[in-house]
Amino acid sequence: MTADEARSVLAVDLGGTNIRVAVVSTSGALTHRRAIATDAKDGHPSVIRRMTGLINEVAGDAGLPPMTPVGVASPGPLDPHTGVVLFTPNLPGWRDVPLGPSLSDGAGRHVSVANDGNCAVLGEMRFGAARGATNIVYLALGTGVGGGVVSNGQLVDGVRGFGAELGHTVVALDGPRCTCGGIGCLEAFVAGWAIGREGELVATTADGEAILAAAGDGPVTAGAVAAAAKAGDRAAVAILERAGHALGAAIGSFVNTFNPEIVVIGGGVAAIGDLLLKPARRAIPQYSFVANRSCMRIVRSSLGDDTALFGAAALALGTSALS
Ligand SMILES: [Zn+2]
């Protein structure tokens, strides 16, 4: 075993599609990466059994000692104190599932579980774009919109750990319906599904030609809207400007509430880039105090697809005597 392996943890990313496991060292080296299909339809006992198997295989391959802890980034809402997943739309049939205790029994290791947004902000602080910062807001713009907040070096997640659901911050009282049942949430403007929905509405009008062409034979997705916008289609650009404006309003509120030094934006939708982020930056001054925004910068995530793995590793390191 090398010195670096002796200071490593097992990181697990439980996603709706794949389970990914890797070894991450305190210096941020990610090795022994493995992935299998989640197959959530087989039910949670099967998923947890296969997760446990993969954790044990990776630990064996890496020669990790039994005291090496495991961090798990899971869809939420979940209770990070008990490791119980309450329910999650990404994993059908999961309700009050004791994910942490079951993995701990199966792997014989200390297991920490947190929702992926909270893991991600810890990962960005320890390994990513927010390294060195202690007041951080993280937003994941993806299929849904996740978030995480670190204030004075501590995760802000509330009495039961359900907090920092930044995607469900209301930015329009009469706005569109959100997947959470609420109205006018940030997610209902800027999530992949929300941009796709706006694209679909426009696609039925005379302005929708370019978006329809970008979608081809498939459904109108956020990717089709982004492709049409990049080609200069004004209707597609307008959809992204509206989404960006909502994002800027939300960031303005977060800046006023948390006074972060850095706002990190990750997730697949963030890859749309300036067509989304420029309108957001333009909107922020309308929704924030100048004193608060003048000490803050906005950056893209530097961890990319591995954000959840690095976040899970940061979570495990936070509870480890090795950290
Ligand atoms: Zn919502």
Please report the number of helical segments: 12
- Report the mean per-residue pLDDT as an integer: 95
What is the subunit arrangement here? single chain
Query: What portion of the residues fall into strands of 2 or more residues?
Result: 15-25%
What coarse outline follows from CA principal-axis ratios? Answer: globular
Q: How would you describe the overall organization of this protein?
A:
With 323 residues, this protein is α/β, with parallel strands linked by helices. It contains 12 helices and 13 strands. The strands form 3 sheets. It has a 5-stranded mixed beta sheet with strand order 3-2-1-4-8. Strands 11-10-9-12-13 form a 5-stranded mixed beta sheet, with helices on both faces. Strands 5-6-7 form a 3-stranded antiparallel beta sheet. α7 (209-215) packs across α8. It starts with a helix and ends in a 5-residue tail after the last helix. The model has no long low-confidence stretch (mean pLDDT 95). The structure holds zinc ion (ZN).
Chain-wise SSE layout:
Blueprint: H1 3-6, E1 8-14, E2 18-25, E3 30-37, H2 44-62, E4 70-74, E5 78-79, E6 84-87, E7 95-98, H3 99-107, E8 111-115, H4 116-127, E9 136-141, E10 145-151, E11 154-155, H5 187-190, H6 192-203, H7 209-215, H8 222-230, H9 234-258, E12 262-266, H10 274-283, H11 290-293, E13 297-300, H12 307-318
Parallel strand pairs: 1-4, 4-8, 9-12, 12-13
Antiparallel strand pairs: 1-2, 2-3, 5-6, 6-7, 9-10, 10-11
The protein binds zinc ion.
